[in-house]
Specification:
alpha/beta; 35% helix; 18 helices
């Protein structure tokens, strides 16, 4: 997070026998959990969870190749490895202490570490070939890689450059932090292969990002050539004028051209995997045990951040919605267990967008998988005071009934909140005309 953010793809936390994880938490973090209605005992379940990995280029591999990878991992890990039912490409390693560096399939670039909960957030978008996809908070990049694979035509020959016909659609990643974007770029270079032809990265603020999807058929050299001939030296002048904020921070040559970047289309799919306090991930939480709890207090759970994070999330969600075309799908997700960063944020969004504009849909990836989910937070499950305070907003919470919570205690995965929202018609543009103060989560209107 901020300058302290680190992504350690191969790091695995060691759980000491006969001890509870929560017994090591600082008093301030325990207070944070209490204020956010999170049971500290949920972290003691993490030691029993499996280690998840994703098979890269899964949609291009034969069943025999997949079986060989599973067998190889099982031999290296010395434990059972299972396919995750209903979640394509994900494997469950039953020994949670295994390190990726021990696995030949990791060294050879066949797998990458990724929790199944993160996979569900990406799969909830139902990306199809030809879609223009926006990942508004893309670092460290594991979801972005999966989105690019979903977009890619599996019939394209993996041993050659992509054909013109296969290069349809795009994946646009955005992140505000240079070093997080650099991590994402490194992942793309290392693992994306030919899929990197679809990907462009922008180093910008996701709450104000305003670049539209690439031009239709951005991949067609003839169209690029024609655009250049009709506009003179457009490409060179465009690069000079837009160097600061218009061209991608990282992209292939074709996606960096003026023709590709001068698009006016909105996106078919938008993922807002929003910045959060990461309290649903034991790996994130326990890093602070080594780095120092004072870092957690300063960067994650201080009073200012606890209040500012839901506001940031609300503005990311609203901007992602603005960039989504009617009929498109937006997925809002966090790896927090806090209702204030999940149901309150989506509830505030739904209060600004009526039933004729936004619909929270069932998530096919959840229905296809054998994964238990926890119920979302509802005022009716709280005290009488809470029910009374939210009585006029009951309909808002009922509209998000198809959102899901993945909870370590029931889901056999890290914590994750996922809401899939369909855009039924255009948005109220006045929300973006200097009225950012109205873009807020539901107020915390009852005492804890």
């Amino acid at each position: 997070m901020n300058g302290f953010y680190k992504i350690l793809m191969d790091e695995q936390i060691e759980i000491k026998p006969n001890s509870t994880v929560s017994s090591n938490f600082s008093p301030s973090f325990l207070e944070f959990l209490q204020e956010n209605h999170i049971d500290p005992g949920v972290y003691d379940v993490f030691s029993k969870l499996p280690r998840y990995v994703r098979v890269l280029r899964y949609n291009r591999r034969s069943n025999e190749e997949i079986s060989e990878i599973v067998l190889k991992i099982s031999r290296d890990a010395g434990c059972k490895v299972n396919l995750v039912r209903g979640i394509p490409g994900f494997l469950e390693i039953t020994d949670s202490a295994i390190k990726l560096s021990q696995l030949r399939s990791y060294s050879s670039g066949d797998i990458i570490g990724m929790d199944v909960s993160s996979g569900i957030a990406a799969l909830a978008l139902s990306v199809a070939p030809g879609d223009n996809v926006l990942d508004l908070c893309c670092a460290p990049g594991t979801k972005l890689l999966l989105l690019a694979e979903m977009l890619n035509n599996p019939k394209c020959n993996t041993d050659s450059e992509p054909s013109i016909d296969s290069l349809k659609g795009s994946v646009t990643g955005v992140d505000i932090s240079a070093h997080r974007a650099a991590t994402c770029r490194s992942l793309i270079k290392k693992y994306a292969g030919n899929n990197k032809a679809y990907i462009r990265l922008f180093l910008e603020d996701g709450t104000t990002f305003d670049e539209k999807a690439p031009q239709s058929q951005w991949w067609d050299p003839q169209r690029i050539k024609y655009a250049a001939s009709t506009n003179g030296n457009l490409h060179n002048s465009w690069r000079k004028e837009r160097k600061a904020d218009g061209r991608p921070w990282f992209a292939t040559k074709m996606l960096s051209t003026a023709y590709a970047c001068d698009g006016s289309e909105l996106y078919d799919r938008v993922l807002v995997d929003a910045e959060c306090t990461h309290d649903g991930s034991l790996t994130h939480v326990q890093k602070y045990e080594r780095w120092g709890w004072d870092q957690l207090d300063a960067l994650v759970i201080n009073d200012n951040r606890s209040a500012s994070v839901p506001l940031l999330q609300s503005r990311l969600l609203e901007n992602g919605w603005r960039l989504l075309k009617p009929g498109g799908i937006l997925v809002y997700s966090t790896c927090s267990l806090s209702r204030y960063q999940n149901e309150y944020v989506v509830g505030g969004f739904l209060s600004r967008h009526g039933e004729d504009e936004a619909s929270v849909e069932r998530i096919p990836a959840i229905e296809d998988a054998i994964i238990a989910t926890a119920p979302i937070w509802m005022p009716e499950n709280e005290s009488k005071q809470a029910q009374n305070n939210f009585s006029d907003r009951k309909g808002i919470f009922e509209r998000m009934v198809h959102a899901v919570r993945l909870d370590p205690s029931v889901s056999n995965s890290s914590g994750m909140f996922v809401a899939r929202i369909r855009k039924l018609k255009g948005s109220n543009s006045s929300l973006f005309a200097g009225q950012s103060k109205s873009i807020v989560p539901l107020e915390l209107s009852f005492s804890k």
